[in-house]
């Protein structure tokens, strides 16, 4: 089936047009239609992969929303992801740290809702340097929660990962993670994300903070930093370099096209129940060899580019998600198959060589520095 390009652009609308029923500021007890007040959404980590896709998606779908992007511009933040909206009067960028209360207050003041993406997100980096993961993912989340309480935001959505649940076996394919799966993180990254999830739940219980959580499987799509496996394989294959596959290549991930993650968060933000957690999955389990084979086939490159490298320490063997709760309660399901999404993603990297080449050469940091100097 050919890719449905109308669904696959980073800023495209999803299938869930009914999610426009409620707006982020909706929490009045009145059963009457809401009087809409000006809407202002704080997105943390909006210069990263998913955060940038989410901002592009939301600004297209809700042109009247104001969006504030708070991002520290670590190596993973890239303002070039947001060129399409940088001059939009409803978009503003604040270069700041979620661990810094003053930065967070400056960004959150006047916002009715928060969607929290900012994190250290790369498992391999967490294995070589866990401290920044605890600082950003745990302490940063706690600072955001405290300021959200103090300012009385109406919605706080925390974006988390399926990795908090640990690993599933390769043998029993019917086994899936659900909202009731016990936490069992096995890397410093997933442990720090688990800590942040627990804090969010604790703030709901202790302080009645109006928060929701989502745990999502592996995303892929446009603007994905080329240290992660799919963009790494695509950009290496395009340059006739080897595709490094961990261990046996049998570890399985459940892949979700990034705009489907955006549409799920959009729904939770507008219609999700306070205090609830929603699991988001792609129904697209693939192992490392299958991912590499698919990319090589699309790019018409030889299988000999596959190379097997030493396995990641403590490598989780399988992630897979049961997303029936969000499907039943909010009407969400993935709209892009893996074949469609990976074809569109390879095409995006072909069309946007200058974007990823500027990352590999580190030139993208110039744009970040210029912005940081202006603030
Ligand atoms: N990528 C995935 O497959 C996936 C899947 C499920 C959940 N998630 C979660 O989604 C979120 C976003 O993931 P991503 O892949 O877009 O990450 P990313 O690494 O691409 O982006 C993270 C962003 O956070 C910013 N940031 C880091 N530390 C900060 C700080 N102290 N203050 C302010 N900003 C800071 C970075 O500059 C960057 O722009 C993360 O919370 C991650 O755990 C990711």
UniProtKB/TrEMBL annotation:
For biological process, the GO terms are: nucleotide-sugar metabolic process
Q: What is a single molecular function from GO for this protein? A: dTDP-glucose 4,6-dehydratase activity
Catalysed transformations (reactions): dTDP-alpha-D-glucose = dTDP-4-dehydro-6-deoxy-alpha-D-glucose + H2O
Q: Which top EC class is given? A: lyase
Instruction: List cofactor names only.
Output: NAD(+)
- Alphabetical list of InterPro entries matching this protein: dTDP_Gluc_deHydtase, NAD(P)-bd_dom, NAD(P)-bd_dom_sf
Region span, Disordered: 1-34
Q: What EC number(s) has UniProt assigned to this enzyme?
A: 4.2.1.46
Xref: Pfam families: GDP_Man_Dehyd (PF16363)
Bias (Polar residues)? 1-21
Looking at the record, the residues that make up the NAD(P)-binding domain are: 42-344
Taxonomic superkingdom:
Bacteria
What keywords are assigned to this protein? Answer: Lyase, NAD
Among PANTHER family, the record links this protein to: DTDP-D-GLUCOSE 4,6-DEHYDRATASE-RELATED (PTHR43000)
Q: Which family does it belong to?
A: Belongs to the NAD(P)-dependent epimerase/dehydratase family. dTDP-glucose dehydratase subfamily.
Would you tell me the protein name for this molecule? dTDP-glucose 4,6-dehydratase
What gene makes this protein? rfbB
């Amino acid at each position: 089936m050919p890719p449905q390009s109308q669904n696959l652009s980073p800023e495209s609308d999803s299938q869930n047009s009914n999610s426009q029923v409620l707006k982020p500021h909706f929490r009045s007890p009145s059963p009457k239609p809401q009087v809409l007040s000006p809407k202002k959404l704080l997105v943390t980590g909006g210069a990263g992969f998913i955060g940038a896709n989410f901002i592009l998606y939301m600004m297209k779908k809700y042109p009247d929303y104001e969006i504030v992007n708070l991002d520290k511009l670590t190596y993973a933040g890239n303002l070039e992801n947001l060129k399409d909206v940088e001059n939009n009067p409803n978009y503003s960028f604040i270069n700041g740290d979620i661990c810094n209360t003053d930065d967070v207050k400056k960004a959150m003041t006047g916002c009715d809702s928060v969607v929290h993406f900012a994190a250290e997100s790369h498992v391999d980096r967490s294995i070589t340097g866990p401290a920044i993961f605890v600082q950003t993912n745990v302490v940063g989340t706690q600072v955001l929660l405290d300021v959200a309480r103090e300012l009385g935001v109406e919605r706080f959505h925390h974006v988390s990962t399926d990795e908090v649940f640990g690993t599933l076996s390769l043998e029993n394919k019917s086994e899936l993670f659900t909202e009731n799966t016990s936490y069992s993180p096995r890397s410093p990254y997933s442990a720090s994300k688990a800590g942040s999830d627990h804090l969010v739940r604790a703030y709901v219980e202790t302080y009645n903070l109006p928060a929701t959580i989502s745990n999502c499987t592996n995303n892929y799509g446009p603007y994905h930093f080329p240290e992660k496996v799919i963009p790494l394989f695509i950009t290496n294959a395009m340059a006739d370099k080897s595709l490094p596959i961990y261990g046996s290549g049998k570890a399985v991930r459940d892949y979700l096209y990034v705009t489907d993650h955006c549409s799920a968060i959009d729904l939770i933000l507008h219609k999700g129940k306070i205090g609830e957690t929603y699991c988001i999955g792609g129904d697209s389990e693939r192992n490392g060899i299958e991912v590499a084979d698919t990319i090589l086939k699309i790019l018409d490159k030889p299988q000999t580019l596959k190379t097997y490298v030493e396995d990641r320490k403590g490598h989780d063997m399988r992630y897979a998600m049961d997303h029936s709760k969000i499907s039943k309660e909010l009407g969400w399901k993935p709209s892009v198959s893996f074949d469609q999404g990976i074809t569109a993603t390879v095409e995006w990297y072909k069309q946007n060589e200058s974007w990823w080449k500027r990352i590999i050469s580190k030139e993208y940091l110039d744009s970040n520095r210029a912005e940081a100097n202006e603030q």
